[in-house]
Amino acid sequence: MMQSLGRRYVQYINHRYQRSGTLWAGRYKSSVIDSDAYLLTCYRYVELKPMYEGLVDSPELYAWSSFNYHTGREPSDLIADHRLFMNLGDTHEDRADEYSAMFRFRFDRMLLDYIAETIKLGQVLGGDRFTEKIEQIANHRVRPLKRGRPKKKDKDEQSSSSGTTTA
Fold this sequence. Notes:
By secondary structure, this protein is mostly helical. It has a domain at 27-138. It has eight helices and no strands. It is globular. 8% of the residues are buried.
């Protein structure tokens, strides 16, 4: 669906503005995330990404971000608040203050890299229990397999498992 939508949108923009080529640098990527554990961290990741990419000096300067809404700087009719954002306070002002406080400390580099890699690979962002639940719902493996070919069994292991012995 996203691929089809993307193609049609690119055709529309290219036709309307008499241009050619792609609009985006890469493929559409998404990951299932454990909201309870990672939602607000991912909000923060998304809000800070334009700054880390050198597009702006601070997150409030990026025009296509929800940062200004979440921090109480601008209203928006486009954003539906998630329950975890709503839990930050009783009023939008309280929630905006709490959300702003999340940006007062540096992002843990290892966590930033983990989120980026998970999204890049399209993996589940969550703990083992959450990942197992997603595998059950999806009815297939979502965790990556170990790299490389599985190791061969020793001759002794093969013969004992098949019920034969070697002399």
